[in-house]
């Protein structure tokens, strides 16, 4: 199987995975959902309230470090094999314009479409219409990661009541149409910051698209560390100058001139060269490998110091995420002091007022009770809250003490009545006159 077919298969698998994921649940909870409706974060069946998003930094760090680690270990495979921009361009250019409408030739992506023909103009608008339809599907699927599907489809039935959602979808659609149809691959070159900073991760051990100048005829060697600088010619020139690799390149570069920032490692040039050189009984002049391995015939070291640091960083992120996932509390309690520090009641006791917010994050109806763990402080006023699943309510807690404690910290135990295993311990400050 050539690289193009492998890449299309990868796109298909990723597309199915992204479309299906919002609908998959574990124990009634979503695999991945950052809900703007219920203010919850679902992650592999675990549900976290907005006050519990302590695992998010580690997930974002894992994603950020992971992309750079991928570049360091395997070259720019993200851009060519997983980036939504690349996938959408392949769908519009290769599937709609080439396969369905026959506006382009699959072997020549450099040639502009001749829109002077009326038939081509009609096909252009048909292609634009098809992409707009697909853009609505893409935008809706994207929103399912922020609005639960069961709510999303109900909201769509009443668009006038959910204008913000509709405007968000329309904004994504307009961006996708402008980006994919008009900006094209220029987005990668001029807008995407990753395409610029990824080049600093390359060295002679990094896997990338390499044109074998030793066989092809052009050599750009200065020394082992800095290559592609001094142009020389060898006597062993196998390149037929058919320019098949140039014509098929979706980012409009000539890989024979060496690695360039526009290259996305799609390896279509390697497939094109394989076809031509195969007719001559020879291997392709374009490889996916490191410079040391292809040109300098050196054994590449995958577990070099830089890659080891990336691997260690990713493992640390995974361990922290797993640890904090295990620290999830059975319910959430937030305690706020009112503006009055304290007051003295008719019996001479010191009284402190607090505002409690309790969120029942379990799937059962529970009654929440409080116990003061300090002997000198008692509860003067608190009505136990009965909360339905996912319900949040506020109530007042009044504590009193016969002793003048000055400023001290006291411990409160919140628990579900009849089940002390579901408990949360909180420390608050109790104020008294000096």
Features of this protein?
four-stranded antiparallel sheet; 14 helices; 39% helix
Task: Give an overview in words.
Helix 5 crosses helix 7. About 40% of the residues lie in helices and about 25% in strands. The protein has about 425 residues and is α+β, with helices and mostly antiparallel strands. The chain starts with a helix and ends with a strand. About 5% of the residues have low confidence. The strands form six sheets. Strands 10, 11, 12, 14 and 16 form a five-stranded antiparallel sheet that branches. It has 14 helices and 18 strands.
In short:
The chain contains 14 helices and 18 strands. The chain has 434 residues and is α+β, with helices and mostly antiparallel strands.
What summary fits the major beta sheet?
A: 5 strands, antiparallel
Rg measurement, Å: 31 Å
- What is the SS-derived class? alpha+beta
Dominant shape: elongated
| Total of helices | 14
First and last CA, distance: 82 Å
Q: β content, as a range?
A: 15-25%
Give the low-pLDDT segments: 219-236
Layout of SSEs?
Layout: H1 3-20, E1 25-26, E2 29-30, E3 32-35, E4 40-43, E5 46-49, H2 56-74, H3 77-81, H4 84-100, H5 118-143, H6 149-157, H7 163-183, H8 186-191, H9 194-197, E6 208-211, H10 213-216, E7 218-221, E8 227-233, H11 244-247, H12 268-279, E9 286-289, H13 291-294, H14 305-326, E10 332-337, E11 343-344, E12 350-359, E13 366-372, E14 378-381, E15 385-387, E16 392-401, E17 408-416, E18 419-430
Antiparallel strand pairs: 1-2, 3-4, 4-5, 6-9, 7-8, 10-12, 11-12, 12-16, 13-15, 13-17, 14-16, 17-18
Helix pairs in contact: 2-14, 5-7
